[in-house]
Amino acid sequence: MSETLENTRAPAEPLSEPMTIGVEAYVSEEYARAEGDRLWAKVWQQAARVEELPEVGDWLTYDILDDSVIVVRTAKDRFRAYHNVCSHRGRRLVDVPPGAHDARGRGRGFVCGFHGWRYDLDGACTHVPERGDWPCGLTDERIALRRVNIDTWGGWLWINLDPDCEPLRDYLEPAATLLDPFRLENMRYRWRRWLVFDCNWKVAFEAFMETYHVPYTHPEFMEFGGFLGWARSHGRHSNIGYDAPKNMDENQGKVRLGSGDDPRKATADLQNFTWENANTNTTWTLVQAARELVDDVPEGTPGPEVLRHWLDSARRKDAERGVIWPTVPPEAVAKAGTAWQIFPNFQIGHAPNNMLCYRFRPYGHDPDKCIFEAAVYELFPPGEEPETEWVHTPEDDPGWRTVLPQDFSNMAAVQKGLKSRGFTGPKPNPYRERSVVNLHHNLAKYMGTGEPRDLA
User: Fold this and answer.
1) Cα(315)–Cα(285) distance, integer angstroms
2) Mean pLDDT per segment of 10 residues, for the chain of length 456 residues?
């Protein structure tokens, strides 16, 4: 009997057994240097938003370790990306101003500041001073800018340094299909901040790819309900979501109901707290609609009905000001969860009318530092999108509010703890932190080392 039951049991989900991870990927300078050739030269990376380059000739730079890329709009519906280097002597065509997030500009081409070589928007070299001095060898193909693969999805511009890379859409699946209903391309920045932080980029990423830490790092949220959830692996990528009560699949998503004796009040309290202390994962419309629940919905109304009234009311309020939410079926919200970890370094925390995204990049070859970027997006009435830019924000700046600094304290402390002689390696929760194991499982495929091991 037991053998029959064993044979009919559903197969375990990938990476669902207890596992442990080595510390090399976090602390080794040799590993950090190898990432340039083995990882960053091979993967699709989110470089910018489409709307950041609204006009033909608009361009910006994206840097990853020693590589710098110029991304430029060359036509109404076409973008190009080039290695940011003059083909003559190797000078960078565009310099990032000291302390700036990136370089940006607009023009009909690029001019090297060293010897005046010129390039048009299509990458062709249009002028070489004294070109006649070269009797041979200086062909148009040889002196053109080297192209970088570029494509769009979700409103973002993605680049890949590998000339033989797979198509972006194939790379992003199944995340792309499960996120398409949210129409992320229609959202715009509400704010965006960045800083150089004292931890490895993977330590920073892992601080946000699970809900296991919420009751202990952000205990104030527990006043409004349970915030523990699941993590699932999907090939290269993973996603996370909240555990939800029966008949409340939609509450696995980012926009969720407060729980307790009165979900009307708990939801309003949760929205007020989030708006004031994080300024993420909600909008002013959602806050307003939550504040009206006590007056609009009778006491004792079941949670699912409170959730539906709240979201319907917020959707209606937004429609009145010209903001149209996409229609996302509850089952699609449940499958998509609260956030996707797009391998290797981008997180999309999605909802029907807003999202919180993080990007994590190495800071040179120093394994103890990273570039941390956070951005909040939402749907705005056409023409009313705020003007934003990447604002360098030190970790003690009040602009981070109160919630993110709690995560920052963990990130710095983990980087130090990973070097302790008494630490034997991370041991992620197989249900709630499977995304961490999945990250290292995929890193090992590129890096050739660091595969998670069975904890048993």
Assistant:
1) 8
2) 46 89 98 98 98 98 98 98 98 97 98 98 98 97 98 98 98 98 98 98 98 95 87 97 69 71 93 96 97 97 92 97 95 93 98 97 98 98 97 98 97 98 98 98 98 95
For residue 61 the two structure tokens come to: 């730079």
Residue recorded with tokens 């699941």? 230
Residue 317, amino acid:
K
